[in-house]
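User: quick one
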Amino acid sequence: MSRIVMKFGGTSVGNTERIRNVAKRVIGETAKGHEIVVVVSAMGKTTDELLRLAEDLSAEPSKREMDMLLSTGEQVTSALLTMSLQHMGQDAVSFTGWQAGIGTESVHRNARIEHIDTIRIEQALSAGKVIVIAGFQGLDAFGEITTLGRGGSDTTAVAIAASILADRCDIYTDVDGIYTSDPRYIEGARKLQELSYDEMLELANLGAGVLHPRAVEFAKNFCLPLSVRSSLSEETGTILLEEPTLEKNLIVRGVAFEPEIVRITIAYEVPFNGSLAKIFTMLARYHINVDIIVQSIMEGIQPSVSFSIKKEDFAETIHILKSNKADLGYQLANFEEGLAKVSIVGSGMVSNPGVAAQMFDRLRKEEIAVKMVSTSEIKVSVVIPEIDMLKATNALHDEFGLAVVRV
Amino acid sequence: MSRIVMKFGGTSVGNTERIRNVAKRVIGETAKGHEIVVVVSAMGKTTDELLRLAEDLSAEPSKREMDMLLSTGEQVTSALLTMSLQHMGQDAVSFTGWQAGIGTESVHRNARIEHIDTIRIEQALSAGKVIVIAGFQGLDAFGEITTLGRGGSDTTAVAIAASILADRCDIYTDVDGIYTSDPRYIEGARKLQELSYDEMLELANLGAGVLHPRAVEFAKNFCLPLSVRSSLSEETGTILLEEPTLEKNLIVRGVAFEPEIVRITIAYEVPFNGSLAKIFTMLARYHINVDIIVQSIMEGIQPSVSFSIKKEDFAETIHILKSNKADLGYQLANFEEGLAKVSIVGSGMVSNPGVAAQMFDRLRKEEIAVKMVSTSEIKVSVVIPEIDMLKATNALHDEFGLAVVRV
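Assistant: Done. Structure below.
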């Protein structure tokens, strides 16, 4: 007998027909003798509908009230799925986040789980019940309902799995696993059987939106096997582990891309160490997400710093720079729009020098200009013209042999 | 400065436009310097939609899960109204039933409030906030969400008002007060300025669906002035008090009617004291609501008991009687369908003998057959042919001078 946490996203529980299918799948697992805890998201468009109501009443609704509002969506799904399970003869009980013992920090709309009191879960499991927990939510120390922000239900599932020492956590979603690249755009992109937590973290941060980074971090910290699979098919998905044992030969496991990047360059007359901190502190205060930062100080060349941001933050960034020019003490700012970021990710890169060189070489052969570079132990990102984004991704996908299965 | 609890029903908060209007009305009261607690129902059709989802998944969903499901409706309204208030510059905070400290017995779908811990409400009032409480719900001693059944939000409002020693509780609804009779059917029915709790209790129990009896009882126990008024107009509604001071001359204050009544008569060979208890205990166990009971034991006539029930319970009642014939020990049962109940209600009846006689006399003049009679200190009910229901109501409304205002 294993303990398994199953998480179903909004599409998987989008209507009563799908909720019934989820119930059947859950019963399929209990029939194997497993103890099951289910975590659910709000039904399909529920959250959007609630957001629309809120927007209609207030241009900037308070975060506390948004949490009160939005947390109802998951509660509805948890009750409905429980009814469906009971109707099929499976003893079950639903819990809100606070009933499940999920304690968070005192922050609204983006709270972190601080602790989980598993007593009610353990009691219900002992009584042979399937537990259906409303994802995405918790309670702070002041008795306020909080929500966990984007990917919150994934985080709930992984945190619950870790706290009840589950054998694994299965994330059921509308894709059937993690791909080497986005199959909608990249020919030959294929599903990976396994992936390391770190690789997934890089891919998730690069916009492979299947799993929220926070959920992956949680799984990594507790060495919890995490699978991503489709709620519509019986196929095995992708399993996240500390160290994949399959497809070991793959040095690069994924190629990610992100359009709509803008590069901003600031130049100074004099060295600018203090000013540099000032700029990025200021941008952080305005929640501008700065990605790649490249500093260049060379003899005889004006000192400068370049950084990349998302296009959606462009106008605000320029405004912040302009209105604080005196304070920031820079001399010249220019920018380049129409850029994209392409990244290769793979744990094998650490022990295989030359991967970056191979990447640059291929891009050169494809005649793609590299504007910025950023590297980590398991990732190399380049900023290139947006027009070349898919060409570059396809080329790198091919270059690192991702389309062909070589076990 | 007064403390006022304002309760808004589902129609009054049916869409964002109406929620905005409610917010304006609340701010109108705070502008007068009052401390305000608002209690809200679920928006218009929300509950029906949730019920439909539940029905689609289970023919008989568990009551606990229904409470988990349905309690979200009021939570949504409370958050939305709070956002609207905040947007208009009024400091406000929403509470679920459990955040408002509402403790109930451990019963689902029809729980009674047992105690209210007002600490969070008092704190928020001290901080100058309007509090918006999700009606209809509470928490039992085991941490389970419960709901209060029909009229539950009224009960929440009155119970909160009593526990925070409010000066009054205003129930805003889609009618503008309590009428002498149903104005949709009875010509000349008019709004009452005042009504005693007891009169309202009789009227509520007789199907005047504006206020739930439980809420009225609560108000009566705490001598809490309770007003029923329209959320759409500025008109004063009807105020419920221990003893009305206006319209004192009215001996009868209301004429209520209820169609679809069935009379059942059971006859015995022998005296049946024990058996009588058995029948009504059994019917109660099956939740059959028995209304009027008439027993007749006369020399030389077969002992019998007649009682009235609602048509919707008819089939089940007959089934219970038939399948327990041996146990119940009766000899003969007959019934009469197509009946209705018409009642006159008024506190003044206690000190004015002859009111019942006046009622029977008028019905006789109208050639309406009286099948059963039931009296209390402030009410006389008759069961008559359903076909004569409105005719009787109109006649009695006229007979007791209800259509004419005599102050």
